[in-house]
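Components:
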Amino acid sequence: MARMKFICDAERCIECNGCVTACKSEHEVPWGVNRRRLVTVNDGVPGERSISVACMHCSDAPCMAVCPVDCFYKTDEGVVLHDKDLCIGCGYCFYACPFGAPQFPQAGAFGLRGKMDKCTYCAGGPEENHSAEEFRKYGRNRLAEGKLPACAEMCSTKALLAGDAPVITAIYKTRVTTRGKGEEIWGWAMAYGGSDKLSDQSGGKA
Amino acid sequence: MRKHATFAAAAAAAALLAACTEPSQDPVRSYAGKEDAKAYSGDAFRGDKAKWEAALAARSGYQNDYAPFRAAGKKP
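Structure:
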């Protein structure tokens, strides 16, 4: 096992923000920091799509490449983590990250930045597993409990998948091949079955 | 003479193509922070990596909501 990844199925995401809430709650993330957030394209227009975005734990992570103090490391499972004791809050990683994952708590007046905070894949950080120090700095270490990230396990439509890359890509592939593609995967027929026309549904009005 | 010209042309082509290679320009970075304990080293798995991987694989499998249908031989 070496590639723990997230996949967000945009066809299933209903923009409920359950993943965002689960993350905030699980790790007691400070005010102003969102390790995970939802992005909606064409909001309010039929066919809108939402995806849940956080650190994607890149195989070749740009944040690691630009960090001037080398505070990033990658676990054996492919999770990108960082040492907050080393982070100087310079913000280079924020500019390098294509997903906007690094977050910076406001540490004082005049917009002073604190140490970077980001999604840990619920894998804690470089402190003793399940210690109070680990929870304070990085949040809960669910991976050490044999659990997947809270956001994915909370997802009610299973839009957000987490796990070993081959496993979740196989799940995603099954979905895509089963449901097809195009117009038919959005709307009445997908949700309730039968004809796509509202007038054809029992109780529907022409 | 022709042999020399062929050799020169081959050498020139090789020299030109050498510019097409893409050596890594990334500096070798090393992590400067504290060592992290393995995820399976805690009380839950006591260093049993296989058991930990099996636990994660099982939970990953729960995300496949087509699996119960397939197992029952039904069409989702």
